[in-house]
Amino acid sequence: MIEKLALILTEGIGPVRYRRLINKFKNIENIVNANISELMEILPLEVARKVKQLDIKRAKEEVEKANKLNIKIILLDDDLFPYELKHIENTTAIIYAWGNLELLKRLKFAIVGTRKPTDYGKNIAYKFSKILSEKLTIVSGGAIGIDSYAHLGATPNTIVVLGSGINILHPKSNEKLFKKIYNEGGLIISQFPIDFPPSKETFPIRNFTIASLSIGVLIVEGNEDSGALITARYAFDLNKEVFTIPNRIDIPQAKGPIKLIKSHIAQVVETPEDILLELGLGRINIKKDVELSEIEREVYEKIVGKVSLDELIEIFKDYSLLISTLTSLEIKGLIKQVGNYYERL
Asked: Which carries the bigger pLDDT value, residue 303 or residue 339?
């Protein structure tokens, strides 16, 4: 493991070159013992020379850091390495993982969007994530805005993909969220070495990993140059399903989804069930005989006929608690949302 890690950490060895070296030479010993001329069939001369003298010390230090931080280093040929990434040549050959490793084995779906969402966008991200997490592990990038609400809705069934070293919880303002996810059974991963700082170069790489990991991607809101659109295009190029949500056309947050729809990259969905059906995962099981919390019962009792969200807000002043409760009642199959109204099933 140390030798493979040393090779991955060698400057100039990206995921493509690492895979090609392993495919050609089969193991690290053969790679190190190969002639420079043989290595140069894959590598530039300068990188080939570095490979001949692997920095084992640096790799050992990386493992020591990981052990101290309770971080698992997972390499390409490890059993835990996500199968979705194994055969995509230009995606990462290493994962640093902190949390519930079992989530790596589950079917994954990404929800991403703007860092400046509307209240509508926050509500949609939380609601869709909450419901979809009944069948899928929700992946997002840990950013403020839509990413955060996606993680909150799915916790603990969620994976954060960082654009920095795993010990640098970026953005700092979401550190509390990351620790909540970890403590409640979620997972935080990175493909960057420990202590690696975030930059404008790391985020598109992170976005490609999100797209690669996921069976599909939902873009909730985003402007025309949003990083969420980069994720959508990556997913489209990988033949993954891309979805988006209808929104007002006169707000900046709607411009990205509109662009994706016009480009025939994303299809419009109205409910989480639309996504599940498109992915061939069936419907959410409706359970009528369920126990309700006190707040769930109070909200449910107010839904007689069609009741608008505005009417419910007048009764229940805590907006976040109301939205969470309505989502929970939907998951339990007791109510449904029709436009801006709720009614019983």
From this structure: 303
pLDDT value, residue 265: 95
State how far the Cα of 96 lies from the Cα of 322, in Å rounded to an integer.
37
For the cut 90, the answer to whether the pLDDT of residue 287 exceeds it is: no
CATH match for 1-64 among 1.10.150, 1.10.3470, 1.20.1270, 2.60.40: 1.10.150
d(CA 42, CA 8): 15
Helix (H, G, I), strand (E, B), or coil: what is residue 71? coil
Strand order of the β-sheet with 216-219 is: 72-75, 94-99, 187-190, 158-161, 137-140, 108-112, 216-219, 241-244, 267-268
Burial (CB count <10 Å: 0-12, 13-18, 19+), residue 204: middle
With cut-offs at 50, 70 and 90, classify the pLDDT of residue 301: confident
pTM of the model: 0.83
* Residue among 172, 173, 183, 177 at smallest CA distance from 160: 177
Supply the pLDDT for residue 285: 60
Domain range list for the chain: 1-64, 102-278, 294-344
Q: Which of 170-174, 212-216, 224-228 has the lowest mean pLDDT?
A: 224-228
d(CA 129, CA 138): 7
Please state, in angstroms and as integers, the Cα–Cα distance from residue 144 to each residue in 42, 117, 130, 178, following that order.
Answer: 40, 9, 18, 11
- In a 3-state reduction of DSSP, which class is residue 110? strand
Q: Which CATH number fits domain 102-278: 3.80.10.10, 3.40.140.20, 3.40.50.450, 3.30.930.10?
A: 3.40.50.450
Q: How far apart are CA 243 and CA 177, in angstroms?
A: 26
Residues in CB range of 344: below 8 A, 6 or more apart: 300, 303, 304, 334, 335
CA dist., res. 259 & res. 175, Å (int) = 32
DSSP E strand boundaries for the chain: 72-75, 94-99, 108-112, 137-140, 158-161, 187-190, 216-219, 241-244, 267-268, 307-308, 335-338, 341-344
- The residue whose two tokens read 């950013």 is 143
